[in-house]
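cache lookup: miss for this entity combination. No prior model stored, computing from scratch. Input as submitted by user K.M.:
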Amino acid sequence: MSLLDHIRLCQQRDMARYRPFFAGHDRVGWVEHGLARRLLADDAHFQGDETALRLSPVFADFDSRSRAMAEVAARLVADGTLRKLRGEDFPAAAVHNGPPLFKLDRNAVAIFGIKACGVHMNGFVRRTDGPHLWIGRRAKNKSIAPGKLDHLVAGGQPYGLGIHENLIKECAEEAAIPESLAARAIPTGIVSYLMEHEGGLRDDVLFVFDLELPADFQPRNTDGEIEEFMLWPAERVLREIDTTDNLKFNVNLVMIDFLIRHGVIRPERPDYLELLGGLRRVGHR
Amino acid sequence: MSLLDHIRLCQQRDMARYRPFFAGHDRVGWVEHGLARRLLADDAHFQGDETALRLSPVFADFDSRSRAMAEVAARLVADGTLRKLRGEDFPAAAVHNGPPLFKLDRNAVAIFGIKACGVHMNGFVRRTDGPHLWIGRRAKNKSIAPGKLDHLVAGGQPYGLGIHENLIKECAEEAAIPESLAARAIPTGIVSYLMEHEGGLRDDVLFVFDLELPADFQPRNTDGEIEEFMLWPAERVLREIDTTDNLKFNVNLVMIDFLIRHGVIRPERPDYLELLGGLRRVGHR
């Protein structure tokens, strides 16, 4: 796959297959029509028609909505729609990183097309021959993208944790980076995409961080999620993205963003503007 | 003006006031309806109707189209539509930085809504208390934005010069930066906008560069375009953008992009995602 192939994959969706999902007056997600029809049979939780699915207005605050969505999620596991729950809650909001209207299990986020956030950190070493990037290989027993190449540190943004706090926590768990070092990570912007994924939509904003590491730094995984770490020249990372699908789908985009910001991918490339255009989602707000 | 005000200004347009302008099968620009009607009276150069303006198909190659547009531009000066010509040609293309279909005088670019490019370079010094940015004050006799604050180096992208070459040339002219130093500038991405401007549309892509300068570097203007240079802490630049309109309109956006990439503007700001969304044009491709 080429750089643009990876970007197109993350921006690929047929919105005609989905209807908006509302909590109160706010659209919080998108639900596939078939699932929406099945959910509408459950009039204790949902209202709506062919144009919209609404969480019943009897659930009017954060706690009651969260309880209602937990009941719905349990039912979706019982009927086989979801394989299992994750046991970790994500916030649901009208805008990314906005005030949460309810929380729900991470594994139910995509089938409701809920806006989700994550933190991705490029761990790099500055050398005279250009930046080198730390790359992790995901454990083969992970449920998502087993064996794929990944960032030094990356994770979803759970309910109840700030972005910076989450980054510090993930740095400790995934690569044994002490807080004193992790706190030097620089937020550099976002990557965002809206893609069909396992019967639902991933509507994601990834907060991107760069952490410049000392030459003698050696990451060590502490939560069993990463099998090994490698330090690669940026050019090698670029070649890997441009010719394989060895990286986790969204990691490709965050690394393309890194390679652009650090001048490894340059304006002379004919696809430069198209790459930049695809790193932030357009449309369907 | 706030950060978002500057961004909104650069994305402000009422496209209903314009019709597409074609050369051959390619849309190269947008022309305001009143001007389009006047141009259509000149059937030696134009064809079209209320939905589109077309350069006459008798002009079928780069040279004949360029000559035709030069005749049109001269006539627009004669009838007072344009104050004067600039004597510098810009390329016109179907996509930004794409193969040029013709060239035309820089002062006629906006009233034809032609896609234009530029180079903007953040000259900065890394200090323990954070990045400091070199800021220029534009000469009071400049035709565009006299007296406004500007980048250390910035300029439009003329016909016949590569992006990197143009940057090297502007570095020498605007700040006496030798080629050996200018060549270290890192391309970091783009800022783009589509805004109404002096009876036309500016449809601009700015190629952004960062150049880290030594602590003892002192810029010196050689072309009379910049009156003085100041080295400001990034926080002071942020405050100036957030509370004044002292910076040239598009310089605000490129500096906001710099402040985001360098972690001075952070994800905790409630307008973070809106700022990022506004730095690259959306729609009307």
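stored under new cache key. Residues 42 and 72 of chain A are 9 Å apart (CA to CA).
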